[in-house]
Design a protein that fits this description.
The protein is mainly alpha-helical. The protein has one domain. It has eight helices and no strands. It comes from Flavobacterium lacisediminis.
Amino acid sequence: MKTKDEAILEIRGESIGTIFENSSSEEKFQNQTLRPILKFQNDLFIEVFRNYAIKQKNAFFTLNPEKKMIYIENAIQRDIKFRNSLKGIIIGLFTISEYKDYIQNSSNLNKRMMNLLIERLKSQVQLFEEN
């Protein structure tokens, strides 16, 4: 039987992006851990954001595309409860060793994590339709 960490690594898939010999530890973590998790959880992030927008009085759905981009960024950067929920979705797919690496530099890795997520959501803004 596989360990939990082995199962997590298997379902997440391979690293995304190039890792060079001189890549920083943060860059390695981003490409080996964060990007695969964000890709794996993409559909969930779309639904979580759609639900957030609906609960925020549907204002997002009436905005023009440029303002939607700003809304996405502000929601993730300023709404601490929402941001923490998104972080939990990501951290829940860390292995134990990845979590240990993460806690050594969580502040910088949180910034990378949220910036990657913001860009991912912005690039899929057309998928956010009110149901």
